Backbone:
């Protein structure tokens, strides 16, 4: 169990040690911004002088420990009472990120357990019932991981004061104690005094609720569960079992409820653990509003008025009304070279001269109603699964076939990857998958047949091998289409 506690604490600490406060000073090189020259790649190196937040604090507090799992306990003892001890702690806290920190903590206290308080006289019936009382004075040093759940889960600020925060703590350390046992005749035994020992671990974990009093001071209540890893901690362990005759415990554990204060150190206005990036934006907007100033979103302007600042816009002449991606490039869903604004067949690739729609084998060069309703059913590589993007086309096909008097053959095809035998089976599965979907959604089974043509029926014959073509053409070859009988 000691080893598992050590592993748990190490696992909790390591992921966060790679993070620290970032400066917002961006290095400008004059190069065009892209994936490799923008964002975190341009953040200046972290140095002590570039820190924007305080990240050190000192915490101290006091509370009540209650032995919960031991031969002698503090909670609801044999007389139906609780025996309250006392505890105190002081810690030096270092925030690594806005959601994680590490604390070096010293604890000191005294637990009281058993049938009566050792500071009082033994009950009259103590001798008859072999009743004992005990107290344990302890000192402990530990390293705790501090997880700020409120910052970790915080996404949007509603401009309300950010004054409460839920923290979780877990860690390991070493503990020393002196335990005293008392019966009706007075102090009967004093347990072996255990000093601090390197390699002798205890663990503690729990939660705390912090309230931000001001920029320098926090008030906190904590509830911690302490695992001592020692059966003699309560004063009635295995070597004294001939006296107390109680069930032996592997480890004597206790709860520790405390109230304390945290003093935040440093010259900055805000502590890293209380930082809320959204509030900076709100405060800035409020300040501009108070001065009747407009918010300048794009200092470099937005020439094509597509919502992407010119500094980041890769297409500065986007046509009015065109939808764009984050880089200001007009969207072309089927990647046929015709942007969606002008594409009359948005999901089906086609040449520019036909407004982005596929051509027919006729001399007219126009798209028939049947091809509009029944074309464009494509598949992922090595798959016969019907994609969500195919559903509107298939639903149109259901209506079109049901309204017509003819019958159709559902033909499956593949691209040129793979062997002839594999592609033949794959094309059969694709054709039958579409046929089954149509029948399931209301098409009469007598109107449909299915067959596969493997990789011998390419929509783009030039894609043999597949490496000669862009992926959208290979995807168009992985298709199902219809032929009238």
Residues:
């Amino acid at each position: 169990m000691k080893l598992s506690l050590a592993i748990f604490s190490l696992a909790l600490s390591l992921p966060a040690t790679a993070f620290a406060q970032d400066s917002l000073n961006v290095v400008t090189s004059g190069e065009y911004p892209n994936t490799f020259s923008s964002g975190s790649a341009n953040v200046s190196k972290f140095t002590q002088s570039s820190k924007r937040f305080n990240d050190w604090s000192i915490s101290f507090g006091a509370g009540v420990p209650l032995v919960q799992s031991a031969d002698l306990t503090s909670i609801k003892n044999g007389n139906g009472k609780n025996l309250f001890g006392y505890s105190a702690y002081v810690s030096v806290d270092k925030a690594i990120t806005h959601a994680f920190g590490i604390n070096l903590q010293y604890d000191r206290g005294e637990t009281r357990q058993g049938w009566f308080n050792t500071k009082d006289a033994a009950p009259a019936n103590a001798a008859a019932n072999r009743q004992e009382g005990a107290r344990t004075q302890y000192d402990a040093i530990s390293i705790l991981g501090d997880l700020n759940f409120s910052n970790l889960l915080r996404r949007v600020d509603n401009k309300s004061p950010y004054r409460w925060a839920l923290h979780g703590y877990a860690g390991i350390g070493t503990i020393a104690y002196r335990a005293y046992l008392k019966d009706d005749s007075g102090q009967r035994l004093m347990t072996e005094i255990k000093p601090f020992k390197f390699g002798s671990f205890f663990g503690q974990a729990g939660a705390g609720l912090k309230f931000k009093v001001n920029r320098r001071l926090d008030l906190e209540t904590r509830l911690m569960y302490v695992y001592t890893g020692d059966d003699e901690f309560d004063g009635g362990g295995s070597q004294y079992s001939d006296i107390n005759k109680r069930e032996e415990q592997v480890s004597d554990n206790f709860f520790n409820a405390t109230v304390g204060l945290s003093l935040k150190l440093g010259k900055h206005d805000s502590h890293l653990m209380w930082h809320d990036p959204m509030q900076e934006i709100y405060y800035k907007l409020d300040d501009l509003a108070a001065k009747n100033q407009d918010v300048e979103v794009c200092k470099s302007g937005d020439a094509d008025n597509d919502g992407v600042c010119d500094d980041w816009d890769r297409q500065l002449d986007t046509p009015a009304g065109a939808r764009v991606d984050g880089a200001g490039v007009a969207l072309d869903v089927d990647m046929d070279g015709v942007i969606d604004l002008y594409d009359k067949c948005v999901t089906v690739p086609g040449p520019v001269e036909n407004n982005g729609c596929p051509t027919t084998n006729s001399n007219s060069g126009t798209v028939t109603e049947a091809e509009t309703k029944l074309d464009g059913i494509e598949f992922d590589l090595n798959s016969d699964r019907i994609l969500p993007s195919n559903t509107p086309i298939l639903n149109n096909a259901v209506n079109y076939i049901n309204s017509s008097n003819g019958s159709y053959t559902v033909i499956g095809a593949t691209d040129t990857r793979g062997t002839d035998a594999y592609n033949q089976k794959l094309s059969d599965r694709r054709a039958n998958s579409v046929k089954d979907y149509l029948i399931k959604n209301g098409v009469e089974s007598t109107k449909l047949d299915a067959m596969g043509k493997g990789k011998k029926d390419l929509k783009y014959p030039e894609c043999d091998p597949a490496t000669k073509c862009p992926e959208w053409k290979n995807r168009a070859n992985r298709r199902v289409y219809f032929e009238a009988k």
Summary: The chain has two domains: 2-278, 368-484.
